[in-house]
Design brief:
homodimer, mainly alpha, Cytochrome Bc1 Complex, Chain D, domain 2, two-stranded antiparallel sheet, 2% strand, disordered N terminus
Chain lengths: 363, 363
């Protein structure tokens, strides 16, 4: 039976989160084996299911059924520029839904045109990661989402500003009261993150060719993509890029070629933990929608996906890929582009400011 | 018959565009008179129809039927940050659909955090204006739309940059070839404006309470809103704020209180024409969705709608409004908020960059 064969595989991947196991269990219930008269999985599908799992198909419907109002509020906040000091920058500025949850810039541009220190990761599927930010300093999307609002390089607001903005508009006050009805003080800064996190949790992108392949359609990948998947596994990419998000779990010590050349390398997780073992250590990025979330690496210094594959294979796995292998892996990576929920692309109409709404600050 | 009574009224308003007359003619065909057994228009409705007209209800459907591909391309371009030099700023940055086609800032923030000289007008219903920009220097939305892309304070691009960006992506090349199939060179800079203009032409916002009132529903306005409409007409606001957009036609000499105080007043249309009569002359803004398109006046110096009404009544009409009159007019103005087409709020998924796509420039 399939789960007997895949289960040990799943366990052997260090970064598997409990979520993946739950998803895998769900998967097995309707991805029937040959004894049910359905088509057997191919060997390649089974090998892939040993290190990853299809994305849940019902995350959106399930989320909306269980907490639609919270998600709706989170979406409003995601698109709300008045959370920023300037009134210009929203989460969507750097995590643009039209470009797969990123800004496609090396590093983001924030308040007063300041540059951030690292490439902005996509919000798509971020809820599947074991931790948030390149240095993993926040545990989940709820705690992550409220940090850039306060970062003086990004949205440059204060908690007081955010609560004054939201508290000035009856629609937001009503929504917080409804969504956090059981709390004594519904409008606290933490709840901004709870709502944003609820929205982020529905930002999964199933139905990529690879996702369909994992779900049972052996023809969802082309021959070249399958060869790419095989090379991906042969050289060992999945040892870090495993789990449902193909990354987002483990940490790895990594310097980009640009950093090595300049002699100025980001200290990564060391800045958070002070642990020498974490010097230049970064969260392994997810590979889902990787073809759209360029430029690559934590400093956004490489624009080419093929070049990135060569760099990472060489530096992390000590593998010199042939040109053919590189092209095959790139073909496989392009088969990781899934579907953004239509709901996330529908911009909300934001409530009207009132005389009490803080005015934008440009400096 | 209604059209006999309203027609002279329409002619007496100087800024009526041919479009309004066409719309009015269409209106009369299905807004039947009492002899058809339908309810007669009230006197207040008839007076209002003498200086304005309901917005066409079928602009969206009609546009999509006649040129869906052009509108679709225009929407992509509207949300396309790669048209800007930085790769960060799109039309939607300053004309945010979530906030009624404006940024709700005094003046816009553009490339390198530079401030624009004037408040950004809304793109909603802009296609109904007789000219574009505060100084009316462009005749239509097609010619207007391509200017901010090149403005070094705004998107800071060049025509070459824009054509290189669009020409680098097969999806855009295909779309331009389909939309401009009868042209020898479909991808020319002017056609960026043609597509953007097609999208803007569906950005009308019918079904405000006042729009419904004009279309025949006498109960669509509350008593206070009706009193406001009466005061609006009594003091003569409609002499400039007439036409379907309640503005967007005439020009008026105007200094804001902030300008008078600073002694530095925008020369307005004079800078374009050199005509002394145009010194400090500005296009009269549309009042549609005015409650959402704060802050007000060409320098965005006034946040309160009530204060703006007092300033304009005093400076343009030499009228000192009572507090009651002011509140009534404000109530009427709040009844001018219509419905943004859902289509315009649905963000497009943008095509993937290629190695040929120009890289973002941050300075």
């Amino acid at each position: 039976m399939m789960h007997l064969r895949t289960h040990p595989g799943l366990k052997s991947v260090l970064i598997i989160s409990p979520f993946v196991l739950v998803m895998a269990a769900l998967l097995f219930s309707h991805c029937a084996g040959p004894d049910d008269g359905e088509e057997a999985l191919t060997g390649l599908q089974e090998k892939a299911l040993a290190f990853t799992a299809p994305l849940p198909e019902d995350a959106f419907e399930d989320g909306m059924e269980r907490c639609e109002e919270r998600i709706e509020l989170g979406k409003m906040l995601f698109f709300e520029p008045r959370l920023s000091k300037s009134g210009l920058i929203s989460c969507n500025t750097c995590h643009n839904m039209s470009t797969f949850g990123v800004d496609q810039l090396p590093v983001s541009i924030g308040h007063m045109w300041q540059k951030g220190p690292r490439n902005a990761p996509t919000v798509l599927n971020a809820a599947l990661h074991n931790s948030q930010f390149w240095d993993g300093r926040e545990p989940d999307v709820e705690s992550q989402a409220i940090m850039p609002i306060l970062d003086e390089l990004e949205m440059a607001a204060t908690e007081e500003h955010v609560l004054a903005v939201l508290g000035s508009m009856p629609e937001y006050v009503d929504r917080f009261e409804r969504v956090f009805a059981d709390e004594e003080d519904p409008m606290v800064y933490e709840n901004v993150g709870v709502a944003l996190g609820a929205f982020e949790r529905i930002l999964l992108t199933p139905y990529s060719p690879f996702d369909n392949f994992l779900r049972g359609d052996a023809d969802a990948l082309s021959d070249k993509e399958k060869q790419g998947l095989q090379v991906f596994m042969d050289v060992g990419c999945q040892s870090c890029h495993g789990g449902a998000a193909l990354g987002g779990g483990a940490f790895a010590v990594f310097e980009t070629p640009a950093e090595r050349e300049s002699g100025e390398s980001d200290l990564g997780r060391f800045d958070i933990t002070g642990n020498e073992l974490h010097r230049h250590s970064f969260k392994v990025p997810s590979l889902l929608n990787i073809a759209q979330t360029y430029p690559y690496l934590h400093d956004g210094s490489v624009w080419s996906l093929g070049e990135t594959v060569d760099i990472v294979a060489r530096d992390m796995l000590n593998e010199e890929l042939t040109e053919e292998q590189n092209e095959q892996i790139v073909a496989f990576l392009k088969a990781l582009t899934g579907e953004i929920p239509a709901y996330a692309l529908e911009k909300p109409i934001l409530p009207e400011s009132t005389p009490e709404t803080p005015r934008p600050g440009f400096d």
